[in-house]
Amino acid sequence: MPAFLFSGVLILSLGVLLSACLPAAYQDEGGMHPSDAEIQALEAALKAGGYETSVRYSLVDYVDLNGDGRLDALLRLRGRDYCGSGGCTALILENTGAAFRLIQHLPTSDAISAQETLSRGWRDVWVSTSGGGYPPALEKLAFDGTTYRLQATATIEQIARDFAQSAEIYVQDGHNLQLRGVAPTQDCEGCYRYLFSFEHYGDPQVGYSLTVDVKQGHPTFVPLWPAPALR
């Protein structure tokens, strides 16, 4: 899925005041509680980017992307104008200290997160994609010195399978790894649970299973490996 760029650079004063009555556009997500001043600055950025002041959005995370000590913003827009079968538009904004600078906007599903790996001094960003008949996948965005661009894509099943194959019990003589089922987890938005079975050369009469939870929330994707169980 291609990334989309805004032309030019948007520099927005954090001191810009909107109307005395803020539009009811901000929606809390994951316990994020920005101050009124921060909401004003974010909504000024949206307005300068061509979005209506009433556009609904949520703050996914405050995270220092480039190590300058300032918290940048990951936003997700809401509403039918910005959401479709593949998810909702997400925005990445840099906090310059006196302004928010819009770096990138891109379609995504319900998950976007900053990772620990770096590209040109900026943290890589993963977003999930879905829709159009394609399996759920993760896209890695890397900073190229100006903006974030697509660098790699992997299906969530591939990631779960890699996790399973690196489990100690599988590395020790495991073979014939098979996917038995997959379902969204009930307590985590945008997360998936994969159940694998495999055989073991050291105990060929016993069937083993591995469960992998791929969590697409911030800050990292966490695999869980319960002890192998009898089928």
Helix and strand arrangement:
Blueprint: E1 11-13, E2 26-27, H1 36-48, E3 57-63, E4 72-77, E5 83-84, E6 87-95, E7 99-108, E8 112-119, E9 122-131, E10 134-143, E11 148-155, H2 156-165, H3 168-171, E12 174-184, E13 192-200, E14 208-214
Parallel strand pairs: 2-3
Antiparallel strand pairs: 1-7, 3-4, 4-6, 5-6, 6-7, 8-9, 9-10, 10-11, 12-13, 13-14
Notable traits:
231 residues, disordered N terminus, 4-stranded antiparallel sheet, disordered C terminus, 7-stranded mixed sheet, mainly beta
Overview of this structure, please?
With 231 residues, the chain is mainly beta. 12% of the residues lie in helices and 44% in strands. The chain is built from 3 helices and 14 strands. It has helices spanning 36-48, 156-165, 168-171; strands spanning 11-13, 26-27, 57-63, 72-77, 83-84, 87-95, 99-108, 112-119, 122-131, 134-143, 148-155, 174-184, 192-200, 208-214. Strands 1, 2, 3, 4, 5, 6 and 7 form a 7-stranded mixed β-sheet that branches. It has a 4-stranded antiparallel β-sheet with strand order 8-9-10-11. Helix 1 links the parallel strand 2 and strand 3. The longest helix has 13 residues, at 36-48. The protein is elongated, with a radius of gyration of 21 Å. 29% of the residues are buried. Residues 1-24 and 217-231 have low confidence and may be disordered.
